[in-house]
Amino acid sequence: MTKATDTLIEEPILEIRNLQTSFFTDKFEVKAVDGVNFAVPKGKTLGIVGESGSGKSITSLSILRLIQNPGKVKGGEVIFKGENLLDKTEAQMRQIRGNEISMIFQEPMTSLNPVYTVGQQISESFQIHQKMSKKEAMLRSVEMLKLVGIPSPERRVKQYPHELSGGMRQRVMIAMALACDPELLIADEPTTALDVTIQAQILELMKDLQNRLGMSIIMITHDLGVVAETCDYVAVMYMGKVVEYAAVKDLFKHPKHPYTVGLLNSLPRHDIDLEDEELQVIKGSVPSPADMPKGCRFAPRCPFASEICRERLPDLEESEDGNQIRCWIYTDEWDGEPEVNVNGERTS
Amino acid sequence: MLTFIVRRLLQTIPVIIGVTILTFSLMHLIPGDPAQIMAGESASPEQIELMRERLGLNDPLPIQYFDYLKGIIQGDLGNSIRSGREVSGEIALRLGNTVELAFYSTVLSVFIGLIAGVISAVRRYTFIDTFVMIIALFGLSMPAFWLGLMLIRYVAINSDLFAASGWGTWSQMVLPIITLGTAGAAIIARMTRSSMLEVIDQDYIRTARAKGVKEQVVVYRHALKNALIPVVTVVGLQFGSLLGGAVITESVFAINGIGRLIVDSIRSRDFPIVQGGILVLSVLFVVVNIIVDIAYRYLNKRIDLN
Amino acid sequence: MNEEINNGNALPQTTVNPNVVKMKTFWKKFIRNKPAVIGGALILFFILTALIGPHLVPHSPNVQNLANKLNGPSAEHWFGTDQYGRDIFSRIINGMGITLYVGFFSVTIGLIVGVTLGIISGYYGGKLDAIIMRIMDVLLAFPGILLALAIVSVLGGSLQNVIISVGIFSIPVFARIVRGSTLAVRKLEYIDAVKALGANDFRIIFKHILPNVTSPIIVQATLSIATSILTASGLSFIGMGAQPPMPEWGAMLSDGRNYMYDAGHVAAIPGLAIVVVVLAFNIFGDGLRDALDPKMKN
């Protein structure tokens, strides 16, 4: 396994090396995350993109060690500010969760506890990590609600989650996550469950807060539009592995992995007029993790796959520009057509 | 809130009327002539006719029913055939014992059931969980009368602490309460466990963990409060079914309550008492359910329950 | 999290009848649930015992032998003898049939009436629904076994009347479950489509609604057999059901209770028999629920 790059990123706040997380059933092991490497630069936003089942959410839960039975983080390193989180005790992890690394989730409707008020739930973070009194914590909660742009926060703080709209609840989630001024925010599909107009507002809010508070963000999404709008770097995941890692502008301009190309092609494009208005879709579907291909995981669906792709798994290799790619086409061992133009399929 | 209470009370009116119709019919569905039964087996035809007149059995059925209803409202449930005393008095004499028995048994089953259920859920799939659930399954499958007899046979007569019969002193009350409360404890334990397991997989539990909340606090503050919502709704029902179950427990421990009164009266064909006893227990059950509903609604008024 | 793993599983594109697939997955789940399999096997064993046992037992259940009364378990009398010197083992084996008979038949009554009322209520709705459900409310307003007791008090204490009363007692549960499921199915769009195609109510109920409510009904029926056996034996215990010398377990217990101080087994054994049978139905019902209808709660 190649080590994640140092040339690309000067000062990573978080670096993940060969992370492996599996789920165990009676008979077999499902490798949901299988040797993932990436780094999050300080103050920047890293996007993790992939279809459902690619392991992107499991990766994020593994960072905070929130994987529940029957799942288990099997190996690798999660280096946060120079220390491996996988070596920490549970008590030490609790000091980090919600304090130095926070997380917001996809479903604002179900991610807040229905039997406590919004204020009580935000206050809890202050009470745990900053040992504030109830009263003090409640005052700070009002300030947090103000920060995330909730009108009349003094009233809202006393309300229960069901009294708020989906967008409001996601703002509450953000307020809760940012309460203790974390250095890293992990956002797991934060806008997927929301209306389009609300999505834009929430993304705007997150960008704005990042500028003001200077935290780093991991943005997990299946939506390349969100990536283009918010991220500095992207890791594309497929079946538990990172297949391409690049700066956002490079990825959109020159995608290298056939899977990335497929993802980009499946986006509706406004910049060019397609005569037949037809969206291109990657053929086939993600195989079951229990039925893992032997070679490159994308080979069964890849239009360029050759002998070697079906036989051996390629490594994540770094190219001259500092981006990383896991594909035989870019190696000396490539045995297919010599002049493959991966991008040739793109309508540009 | 007020509209809820009013609506809830209005809803029970047809139920209460239905119950009175059923208990009223009881008298008329018994094979044979009610007047004959009421007057006793050795009564002369004149006495039977007199009884028929007194009971208004010559009136059309609806009139009889309204007379019955009027009597109920005035607290008149008729007279016992055997003793001639007022049914309402006989019942009043014993109601306290039955209610006490059902109440303490409910308290016991809620207490034990909650603790067992939470322990089981927190330690799910461990030995403790399996053990607790096996015990609960036994509790659910045991006939109360058998449990009662076994407690008398193997506990009461071997120990001075517990009496085998009667009601009133602490030593008399323990065994009947255990007998009646066991099945309820089992039901509540199973419900609490499955409710907890459902809650523990919810997104907001993950949120709490991601906040850095201690696992114990996650379980007892974030999960339990949610898990209790469905459990609370069955406590009222539980009390009701224990009111009914008291019939058997009272027979086993010779407790002077309504349940045993009903059973004895069925044996001696003292139907006014059977009728009155069943009516009182049913109405009590309906009332308890209303109170539980309202209390539940009040406690959760700010929470969206769907 | 599980969603993440499972989403990769695309369903195979086959033309297999979905009911066959359903049956197969049910069987797979069920066979893996060890307690449920044990429960099912026990029930089969009990049924066989009830059918064949009475012909194999060494003693007649009602032959008295006063010289040999209240003896503890021995090689000759596995469960000992009762106050009349009768062989308790033979009586228990003979009582097995009675117990199962009471359980099955009372639940059959409750099931047929309850399901019919539930479907009518849920399918036609309106006033009919309101009336049926109010009647169910009234039946449920009698706490615990009181309703069964009231009915028995009218009909007179006998085994047959116990079956009828316990059957009526279990009507509301079935009616409520079926009504709920029927309402849910009725709201589905395809029912409108089927209607538009000219199917009559009868056909819709039998072809489209009943198959959808089968799972909860089967689960409830199994669990109801357990409760019905308990209720029925309770009625016999207080003398309102099967009458001695019938070897009904509740009646045996009630009959033997006065002798239990001298010989505990006289009361202990019939009760244990009830526990074992009820336990088997409860375990089996739990297993069925997990395999058929995981959403259903206790």
Task: Please give a structural write-up.
The complex is a heterotrimer of chains A (348), B (306) and C (298). Chain A is of the alpha/beta class and 348 residues long. Chain A has 2 domains: 187 residues, Rossmann fold (3-Layer(aba) Sandwich); 74 residues, no CATH class. Chain A is 29% helix and 22% strand. In chain A, strand 4 and strand 5 form a beta hairpin. In chain A, helix 3 runs parallel beside helix 6 and helix 6 packs parallel to helix 7. Helix content of chain B is 77%, strand content 0%. In chain B, helix 7 packs across helix 8, helix 8 runs antiparallel to helix 10 and helix 9 packs across helix 10. The longest helix of chain B is centred in the C-terminal third of the chain and has 38 residues. Chain C has 298 residues and is mostly helical. Chain C starts with a helix and ends in a 6-residue tail after the last helix. At the B-C interface, helix 1, helix 6, helix 7, helix 8 and helix 10 of B face helix 5, helix 6, helix 10, helix 11 and helix 12 of C.
Secondary structure layout:
The complex is a heterotrimer of chains A (about 350), B (about 300) and C (about 300).
Chain A lengths: L11 E13 L4 E13 L3 E5 L6 H8 L7 E10 L2 E2 L5 H7 L4 E4 L13 H12 L4 H14 L5 H4 L9 H13 L5 E5 L7 H18 L2 E6 L2 H7 L2 E6 L2 E7 H6 L4 H8 L41 H5 L5 E2 L5 E2 L23
Parallel strand pairs in A: 3-8, 3-9, 6-7, 7-8
Antiparallel strand pairs in A: 1-2, 1-4, 4-5, 9-10, 10-12, 11-12
Helix pairs in contact in A: 3-4, 3-6, 4-6, 6-7
Chain B lengths: L1 H28 L4 H6 L5 H11 L5 H13 L13 H36 L4 H15 L2 H11 L15 H31 L2 H8 L4 H38 L5 H10 L3 H29 L7
Helix pairs in contact in B: 1-12, 5-6, 5-8, 5-10, 5-12, 6-8, 7-8, 7-10, 8-10, 9-10, 10-11, 10-12, 11-12
Chain C lengths: L1 H5 L11 H15 L1 H23 L31 H37 L1 H15 L5 H10 L3 H11 L1 H17 L1 H8 L4 H37 L11 H8 L8 H28 L6
